[in-house]
Amino acid sequence: MNDSNSMLICGLMTGTSLDGIDCALAKFSVDSKGKHQMEIISSLTDEMPFEIKDKISSLIVSPDKVHISDISMLNFALPKLFDSSIRKLCSESGTDIADIVAVGMHGQTIWHDPTADRLRNMSTASTLQIASASVLSALSGTKVVADFRSADIALGGQGAPLVPIFDYNFLSCADEDIITLNIGGISNITIMPAGCSEEEISAFDTGPGNTLIDYAMRRAYGREYDRDGKIARSGFLIPDMLEELMSLPYIKSKPPKSTGRELFNPDLIRQFMLDNRYLPEDIVRTLTEYTALTIAENIKIFASEKATIIASGGGIRNLFLKELLNEKLPDSKIVTSDEYGIEGDTKEALCFAYLAYRRLLGLHGNVQSVTGASGKVLCGIIADSR
Amino acid sequence: MNDSNSMLICGLMTGTSLDGIDCALAKFSVDSKGKHQMEIISSLTDEMPFEIKDKISSLIVSPDKVHISDISMLNFALPKLFDSSIRKLCSESGTDIADIVAVGMHGQTIWHDPTADRLRNMSTASTLQIASASVLSALSGTKVVADFRSADIALGGQGAPLVPIFDYNFLSCADEDIITLNIGGISNITIMPAGCSEEEISAFDTGPGNTLIDYAMRRAYGREYDRDGKIARSGFLIPDMLEELMSLPYIKSKPPKSTGRELFNPDLIRQFMLDNRYLPEDIVRTLTEYTALTIAENIKIFASEKATIIASGGGIRNLFLKELLNEKLPDSKIVTSDEYGIEGDTKEALCFAYLAYRRLLGLHGNVQSVTGASGKVLCGIIADSR
């Protein structure tokens, strides 16, 4: 399966929205011009068992009341789930697991705070992804590359976003401005002007993705998400709520910047959820507007609106959100990454497969202009337990 | 500094007793008979700043009331301390840090529970050492090998002890029964009958090391430890207390077994500390007796008393504890590892340097007869961020 020039790599992503285990299998190679090529073999999104999802969710929602045993246990339980997802993917695609050169495992983020508070003159900027690479490697028998963000933060970077190097290699264009947009739990964009060099890329989190909408849906309707954006479409905008949420300094602050559920969590909207004056569909409508507006504003302020926007992530299936984006960005051409052969849900998994490929080749994974790190780093540690 | 056959490796250990950062630098090579050789270059024990020690201590003592940010922050702060300890060691020994092939970093254990509780049919056996290898590698510019215990646990092992492969290579003897004893926070022994094979080694934690004595010293005297065992020597044994502590099933349970501050923590002796009938020196005396007795009993039950016991670890400087050991094991010859060129405090640091060496050579690090794992594993992930 792996000729001398190509490597079969599996990517594994579990985002902050906890909507499943995204797995993708792709073959990477270098063409005669030295450019990296990717052939997508297969992908799947595996369910995360409720008990595990629930435990992770409570870590993220209440990070101040944690039992260490839960973190340690999840660090071992997640790789077991991942191992079974990889085997399922192999079985569905007729791949022998022994042909997989490496697994690029993002791990589950449970803390991400790249801001530089200080303790005893030491920066406390940090990020924490759990799921032990040693364990996955011992179980699957494959090499595992993991912990992609830490080295960048150690050199003063934000440790995020890491997708730009993937976007640059596979989606940038010589004669067209490209913006890639991923709407996961959090939304992020990569801005690549036509023919830009790696150093000219900018990329950052724009603000919420599905996280606030999903929380409101669970809380008010007991549903996991707003299917096709139907609830939002049936509601009315609450101007005061939108205005208050838009006033968060993060939204218009200058990149590099990155965020997570530390900022965009239920606490942010609890007062509105508890206020009887607001109907739940109006809250969902407003949060959908908020999500679209924060994306559009960031594109307008920090990029050119006249661009092709290649959208991916679960949020792009929210048709109402997509309509709002089109309405707010009339000069942009919004397409989905599916049109580029990259299914929306699996883009990040492919990205971490590619980062693992780069790590094995000894190539840096961070884009300094994006993360703000003081140097290029090889992203990821390598486990090879057997 | 590194000829074709030898590698300069730094080992870093911070134990559960939090008594400092043990660093050791050694050159490893393979001799003409294929046997591993170790030349110790230098070692030091660096202080751990009070704020960091305090934060780690509260994680260990109250694992149920943790803020994730503390774990994440320590995961980044510890490698910064380690980087500065390595540079100090280099400077003191006239070593160029660029000559160090790799750092074997144990990391700070904050959870270790290799027992097999189950959640959703998954074993929750796990271990958690913090201090990001990616961060240390980014800062020091060296390769870092870390997370030595996880793969063994993933294959059903206890993930501990890991020192036996070091003991076997450097301290076992063809015509003498050897028992190595390390008295750190927890005490452990490696039993190597004369001329034994790797599969014939047994090794396990016997119970407390300094952890209970140190806790009582801090609580009753505001001191970090019982210097030379003077307080213990001035007290009287409390038979009821000793009897109750000896009744813990762990003490005489059959190996493989391993333990930590999950069992041997302040809760275990709080009732005695709070009881006005007991004098503090009597409590310290009893805990010292308890520590010696648990070591001696385990040697008597699971090994041969007629052996050379090579002792190491901070506890061996407790002269009263050493006397008690001699008294309880009259047929053994107790020596310190110093006599073998291995200073007591740095043995574990040297062990993790050696495990890193083995990892780089692609050699297993666990001894299956000791940990109980179903297979040999390469212990440790490799970070090489720059």
Provide a quick synopsis of the model.
The structure is a homodimer of 386-residue chains. By secondary structure, chain A is an alpha/beta fold.
Describe what this molecule looks like in 3D.
The structure is a homodimer of 386-residue chains. Chain A is of the alpha/beta class and 386 residues long. Chain A folds into two domains: 6-161 and 346-383, ATPase, nucleotide binding domain (Nucleotidyltransferase, domain 5), CATH 3.30.420.40; 171-344, Nucleotidyltransferase, domain 5. The first copy, chain A, has 14 helices and 15 strands. A six-stranded mixed β-sheet of chain A has the order 3-2-1-4-9-15, sandwiched between helices. Chain A has a five-stranded mixed β-sheet with strand order 12-11-10-13-14, with helices on both faces. A two-stranded antiparallel sheet of chain A has the order 5-8. In chain A, a hairpin with a 2-residue loop joins strand 10 and strand 11 (186-192). In chain A, helix 1 packs across helix 2 and helix 2 (68-93) runs parallel beside helix 3. The longest helix of chain A has 26 residues, at 68-93. The mean pLDDT of chain A is 93. Chains A and B meet through helix 1, helix 2, strand 5, strand 7 and strand 8 of A and helix 1, helix 2, strand 5, strand 7 and strand 8 of B.
